[in-house]
Write a structure and sequence with these properties.
This is Helix-turn-helix protein. This protein is mainly alpha-helical. It contains six helices and no strands. α2 packs across α3.
């Protein structure tokens, strides 16, 4: 499911939301822990804005989410805790 539609804005949003739910974090905590505000992050998860490269790099640095996963749904290099829950 998460690999379908690759970089479609709704697919990217669904992947972000699923990871956040797996980590059991609120939008605010997920965003702020990565150095983003909830106002910046929310539209990405709600499919209102395309995920910016700057935000994706912050999520990668904080949560180990590969760009290939966020943008294209490739699960090969995901952290084990997240990949097992998918």
């Amino acid at each position: 499911m998460l690999e379908e539609r690759e970089d479609d804005i709704e697919a990217v949003a669904a992947r972000l939301k699923r990871v956040r739910e797996i980590l059991d974090l609120s939008k605010k905590d997920f965003a702020e822990s990565a150095g983003l505000t909830e106002q910046t992050y929310g539209p990405f998860e709600n499919a209102k804005r395309e995920l910016s490269l700057t935000a994706a790099k912050k999520l990668r640095k904080r949560y180990g989410l590969p760009l290939e996963f966020m943008y294209f749904g490739k699960i090969d290099d995901l952290p084990t805790r997240i990949s097992k829950a998918l």
